[in-house]
Amino acid sequence: MKEQVAAMRSAAVAAIQAAPDLAALQELRVRYLGKKGELTAILRGMGALTPEERPVIGQLANAAREALEALLAERESAMQAAALEARLRAEAVDITLPGTPLPHGYLHILNQVRTRIEEIFIGMGYDVFEGPEVELDYFNFEALNIPKGHPARDAQDSLFIDDEVLLHTHTSNNQIRYMRMVHPQLPVRVICPGRVYRRDAEDATHSSMFHQVEGLVVDRGITMGDLKGSLLEMARGLLGPEAGVRLRPSYFPFTEPSAEMDISCPFCKQKGCRICKQTGWIEIGGSGMVHPVVLRNGGYDPEAVSGFAFGYGIERMAMLVYQIDDLRLFFQNDLRFLRQF
Predict the structure, then answer these.
(1) Are residues 86 and 118 in the same domain?
(2) Alpha-carbon span 227 to 216, nearest angstrom
(3) Whole-number mean pLDDT of the chain?
(4) Residue 324 is part of a domain; what is its CATH number?
(5) The pLDDT of residue 204 is above 70
(6) How do strand 209-219 and strand 306-313 relate by DSSP bridges?
(7) Residue 238's closest CA among 106, 108, 330, 112?
(8) Over the Cα atoms of the chain, what is R_g?
(9) What pLDDT does 41 receive?
(10) What pLDDT digit, counting tens, does each position of 171-181 carry?
(11) Which of 21, 121, 223, 323 is geometrically suited to a Cys-Cys bond with 126, CB 3.0 to 4.6 A?
(12) What distances in angstroms separate CA 270 from CA 194, 237, 262, 280, 285, one per listed residue?
């Protein structure tokens, strides 16, 4: 029995020292020290020994167990340290190398133009106000002198949610909301930027969702001259000191008199080109003196005050500022296009 314990211990030591990895060590631990291991089998056979032999063999077996457990722990620790060292070498980072740059976000081109428009008008004393995109028919149409059955409603091609609620078709609805909010304050000076929605065909110059900025001024003695002066200041702030503005007679239910707003073509410098249809001017929106009905619906007396209003598309203005000829580029999320701005 003594020889058996010694042979088992010697073989186990040799096998543990030759084990190539942690998995092999675990197998050896089970093979020699497990419930069905070789050392356990020896201990179970001690019942056949004489009383004198049992303590001697038991002492040898326990000594063998302690020696093997110590050797297994030592080898396991050494293997783990070697594995960690190898991993550290493999994952070593040269801290002298430059780091990987992180991409930085920036404002979309339309937000850049919107921000610039806001800055120009704030510099002229205007407030900035945003109303709801889901609007009541009353504020979107009726309060703006466009009652049910009015032919101007057909031109809007509106997206109605129910009979009285729709996605607002212009930012003009904010005229009434803002006047009611600040009444009886004078002067009233505000621009209202935001998204608007129409049942429109998608092409190079039209979209079913686009951005507008509405302007409104109400005070005593306001004239069309004040309107043109404000628009000229805006145009020069965006397009440079050579930019020009002209007003052409038109019709809008919420202004009287009404005018189309044109800006001098930045593509050809008013020499005539495909973009401006050889006229030297590009239409950007509508304007005019606030209709008395609209003033009254906003809470102001049209006999005591007057005002002007205007509205134009931010996409169209961005196209002029950056000389872009297709509106759809703004919404295609093509980074090759967006990174230019």
Answers:
(1) no
(2) 10
(3) 89
(4) 3.30.930.10
(5) no
(6) antiparallel
(7) 112
(8) 42
(9) 76
(10) 999 999 999 99
(11) 121
(12) 30, 18, 12, 4, 18
Same domain, yes or no, for 127 and 84? no
- How many Cα atoms are found within 13 Å in the side-chain-facing hemisphere of 197? 12
| Whether residue 223 sits in one domain with residue 135 | yes
Amino acid at 169: T
Quickly count: other Cβ atoms within 10 Å of residue 194's Cβ.
Answer: 20
* One domain for residues 68 and 177: no
Predicted local distance difference test score (pLDDT) of residue 22: 84
Give the pLDDT score at 47. 64
49 and 127 share one domain:
no
Taking each helix axis as running N to C, give the angle between helix 53-90 and helix 22-33, from 0 to 180 degrees, rounded to the nearest 10: 170
Within a 10 A sphere around the Cβ of 256, how many other Cβ atoms?
A: 15
CA dist 222 and 146 (Å) reads 23
Closest by CA position to 283, among listed 291, 275, 273: 275
More confident residue, 333 or 53: 333
pTM above 0.85, yes or no: no
State the Cα–Cα distance between residues 117 and 98, nearest whole angstrom. Answer: 40
Per-residue pLDDT for 49 more than 80?
Answer: no
Cis omega (within 30 of 0) on the bond before 184?
Answer: yes
Residue 53 in domain? yes
Identify the H or E element spanning 309: strand 306-313
Q: Among 121, 116, 247, 257, which residue's Cα sits nearest to residue 189?
A: 121
Position 156 confidence tier, pLDDT thresholds 50, 70, 90: low
pLDDT of residue 296: 97
What are the DSSP calls for 7-72, one per residue? HHHHHHHHHHHH--SHHHHHHHHHHHHSTTSHHHHHHHGGGGS-TTHHHHHHHHHHHHHHHHHHHH
Q: Is a pLDDT exceeding 90 seen at residue 214? A: yes
What sign does the CA torsion over 33, 34, 38, 42 have?
A: positive
SS3 at position 210:
strand
Residues 191 and 239 in one domain: yes
Q: What is the pLDDT of residues 78-103, one digit of tens each?
A: 888 988 888 888 888 788 888 888 88
Q: How many domains does one find in the chain? A: 2
For residue 115, give the H/E element and its range: helix 109-123
